[in-house]
């Protein structure tokens, strides 16, 4: 039986000490030297990571920068339309129509097109398995490799109905909802995910990254505090991937006379996309040890104490619940946190 994920188990300093003892934790210098992208449970223990309880909808570091009006109706027409969500019929439309033929406009149209890759039919993402089999079987009666082909297909599990991180489009919440609160949430807002169908129905990582980038860009274009046309300092989405660091992120640019907009800070926030949930418990996603080991920063005080046996300093990590973009509440929480990130970066 697989151990309980570190994310769920080590939520206090006392819990850390118990796990460090029980799992024969080692200092970082005693571990094999590997890239950070290959870190796992042993590195979490070596770095003395403690995940703070409870999960909060607003990251604590952003709380001083949160303004409730950011996600209220009419904060801007474009943000209001994003919060309202797409009509279910839009999930069956082409990106061309969403951008040009609907009322969405280019920015929001691309958001819904990216979401449709998850919420639309499976055929929207890839050619059907039956079609692929027909292509492979048609036009050639040679039996030179037919036995091996049949053996491979017979061992291939049946593909289930796709049930990824978004619920069925018919259940989209449209309309008013309660305001975002910096509330404690002990469980994910994502519904039940069937492990088998999730594995076989998974969308490529690039599609996940595109959805995230389209949503973030739309919010950066139209939400406070940079919701006016002329902004001398802006937070913008960075497409460039930093090898072994991130899959893109947010950067801060400032206008300089005669030079245009120059990068002031390249890593306001990092974006890390995954192909699928790597750990499911009772149908709910939990951050795996390998993913969690890529998601924390190190303070100067901690570095000074890093290899001391006293282990008096810990890396305390704060997390939000999962935000489901198919639900208004999930979209509100995303807007609130991104607006907070922008205010913190530009203050």
UniProtKB/TrEMBL annotation:
<feature type="region of interest" description="Disordered">
    <location>
        <begin position="132"/>
        <end position="201"/>
    </location>
</feature>
<feature type="compositionally biased region" description="Acidic residues">
    <location>
        <begin position="137"/>
        <end position="149"/>
    </location>
</feature>
<feature type="compositionally biased region" description="Polar residues">
    <location>
        <begin position="168"/>
        <end position="191"/>
    </location>
</feature>
<protein>
    <submittedName>
        <fullName>Uncharacterized protein</fullName>
    </submittedName>
</protein>
């Amino acid at each position: 039986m697989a151990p309980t994920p570190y994310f769920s188990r080590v939520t206090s300093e006392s819990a850390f000490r118990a796990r460090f003892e029980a799992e024969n934790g080692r200092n970082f210098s005693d571990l094999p030297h590997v890239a950070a992208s290959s870190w796992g449970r042993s590195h979490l223990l070596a770095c003395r990571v403690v995940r703070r309880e409870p999960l909060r909808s607003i990251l604590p570091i952003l709380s001083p920068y949160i303004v409730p009006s950011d996600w209220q109706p009419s904060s801007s027409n474009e943000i209001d339309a994003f919060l309202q969500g797409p009509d279910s019929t839009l999930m069956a439309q082409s990106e061309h129509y969403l951008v040009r033929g609907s009322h969405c406009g280019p920015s929001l149209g691309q958001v819904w097109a990216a979401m449709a890759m998850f919420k639309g039919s499976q055929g929207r993402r890839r050619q059907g398995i039956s079609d692929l089999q027909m292509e492979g079987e048609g036009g050639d009666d040679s039996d030179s490799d037919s036995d091996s082909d049949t053996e491979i297909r017979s061992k291939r599990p049946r593909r289930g109905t796709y049930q990824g991180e978004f619920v069925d489009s018919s259940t989209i919440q449209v309309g008013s909802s309660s305001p975002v609160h910096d509330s404690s949430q002990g469980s994910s807002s994502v519904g039940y995910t069937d492990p088998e169908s999730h594995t076989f129905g998974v969308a490529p990582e690039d599609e996940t990254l595109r959805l995230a980038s389209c949503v973030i860009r739309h919010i950066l274009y139209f939400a406070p505090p940079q919701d006016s046309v002329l902004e001398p300092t802006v937070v913008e989405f960075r497409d460039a991937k930093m090898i072994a660091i991130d899959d893109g992120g947010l950067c801060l640019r400032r206008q300089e006379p005669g030079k245009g907009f120059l990068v002031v800070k390249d890593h306001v926030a990092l974006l890390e996309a995954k192909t699928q949930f790597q750990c499911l418990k009772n149908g709910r996603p939990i951050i795996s040890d390998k993913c969690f080991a890529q998601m924390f920063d190190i303070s100067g005080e901690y570095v000074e104490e890093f290899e001391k046996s006293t282990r008096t300093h810990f890396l305390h990590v704060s997390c939000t619940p999962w935000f489901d973009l198919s639900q208004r509440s999930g979209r509100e929480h995303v807007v609130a946190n991104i607006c907070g990130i922008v205010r913190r970066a530009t203050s």
